[in-house]
Specification:
alpha/beta, Chemotaxis Receptor Methyltransferase Cher, domain 1, Rossmann fold, 2 domains, three-stranded antiparallel beta sheet, 11 helices, globular
Length: 287
């Protein structure tokens, strides 16, 4: 069981640590995801776990709670159409605009266990003749160190490689290891993975030509979402592109981006000086 008071504390804790907006109807989700964590930590109940969070006794436990409550649903070439747009239009356009510098930087900002970043790496591998002599950087980050460790290892179950991955890519870029499949070294070495909380400042990462931040914003409340979009705008090159999830939009949350009229799910910088629209007074501002 988790009491109403403990659940309210947990909601605030998650909001502060990760931006996750856990609705009041999601008490069952807290029970199911945190019960194994209690067992691993030798705690008798969710109340004991919340008590430790309240006391701030164990930073490692606090991080584990955030990771356990985060949604890490992902798959290769998820939703298909954005990756086709990358291959056929977005990336060729960026290559034309970067012909002088011959440098390309791409960021998978909520990479989970790596399938999205490796999907981009496969597309870049197919474009390798055009990228000869280029400096290409592909970064994948996620709030979960465990997810990042799996991404770096690049080993996936039969179920995971069957979700969205064309058979020809499986045969070309993966090696069977027991009942699992491991992605080839030429793709593992093409991606740099690291842990990162997107609520924190990420200016040190520099500027990117393409940012994928898919299916994260739907879990954030409006002020947190607006603040995230503002930081992503600062990290995106003026002529770059932001890719969001199929059900996500920037409309009503920021004026820093506008939809790309030619590519669904992609957004580009808005006009210089565009102000973020005001939605309603009760939303407040991001801290």
């Amino acid at each position: 069981m988790i009491t109403a008071a403990d659940f309210d504390f947990l909601r605030g804790f998650l909001k502060d640590r990760s931006g996750l907006d856990l609705g009041p109807e999601k008490r069952y989700l807290a029970r199911s995801r945190l019960r194994p964590l209690c067992e691993d930590a030798g705690l008798r109940s969710l109340g004991d776990l919340i008590g430790k969070l309240r006391a701030g006794e164990d930073g490692g436990l606090a991080d584990a709670v955030v990771v356990a409550m985060a949604t890490h649903e992902t798959m290769f070439f998820r939703d298909r159409l954005p990756f086709e747009a990358m291959r056929d239009s977005i990336l060729p356009g960026l290559l034309a605009r970067r012909a002088a510098s011959r440098r390309l930087r791409i960021w998978s900002a909520a990479a989970s266990t790596g399938q999205e970043a490796y999907s981009v790496a496969i597309i870049l591998h197919e474009m390798r003749a055009r990228l000869d002599g280029w400096r290409v950087e592909l970064l994948g980050t996620d709030i979960s160190p465990a997810a990042i460790a799996r991404a770096r290892d690049g080993t996936y179950s039969a179920f995971e490689v069957q979700r969205g991955l064309p058979v020809r890519y499986l045969l070309e870029h993966f090696t069977k290891e027991g009942s699992d499949w491991r992605i080839a070294e030429h793709l593992r070495s093409a991606v740099t993975f690291g842990p990162l909380n997107l609520l924190q400042d990420f200016g040190r990462l520099g500027t990117f030509d393409l940012i994928l931040c898919r299916n994260l914003a739907i879990y954030l409340d409006p002020p947190t979402k607006s603040a995230l979009f503002a930081r992503l705008a600062s990290a995106l090159a003026r002529d770059g592109a932001l890719c969001l999830g199929a059900s996500e939009t920037v409309l009503g949350y920021t004026g820093a981006f506008v939809p790309d009229p030619d590519h669904r799910g992609f957004f580009v910088h808005g006009p210089e000086g565009t102000e973020r629209p005001t939605r309603s007074a009760h939303m407040g501002t991001a801290g």
